[in-house]
From TrEMBL:
Pfam assignment, any one: LON_substr_bdg
Top-rank taxon: Bacteria
SMART domains on file: LON
Position of the signal peptide: none
Stated name of the protein: Lon N-terminal domain-containing protein
Span of domain Lon N-terminal: 11-204
Amino acid sequence: MAKKFDLPQTIPVFPLPGALLLPRGKLPLHIFEPRYLAMIEDTMRTDHRLIGMVQPREVPGGAEKRLHSIGCAGRLTQWSETDDGRYMITLTGVSRYRITSEQEGFEPYRRCDVTWDAFTRDLGQPEKDPGFDRDAFLDLLSRYFEAQELKTDWESLSGAEDELLINALSMLCPFDPEDKQALLEAPDLTTRRETLVTLIEFALRGGDDEGVLQ
């Protein structure tokens, strides 16, 4: 596990709407844009192999999207190259970070100076949720999946540890980017679960997202 002193002060960032990475989570990505292919190749040459996932902000009339100030860095833990030069990668979440400034440079991708100070708990042991009513949560989740026509492995979900269950659903459920950002910024697992429940209940009252959760 990464220690705070191993974490670099500057990282490449990958703005991707709706893509949420959380500490200890795994995010598969298909990389095909030339600038992000260059980012992957540069990252593989570093010791830390970290890429910062971050939600972009839409700026009216702006050529370059602004970034939310908080993202989550993942270590490049799996990668393979296709015959036509694309990369299939997996990032494993390490820690959230706060952007302090964006660097100007010659790289085709964006790089930011970051601080990790507010997120030291991300480097610790998996979190617990002492007040978690698993039966009630799974009942709510079942109704949400049915309404949204989602599918999943219920046996795996019901047996998952608190953090794995809550974080995996936060990452995979088809919420809007701003809702994903709220899940990312939750200060602890209990708050994230409460936010997740609120989003699910809101969707049951009229959300129309569709998809398949596998």
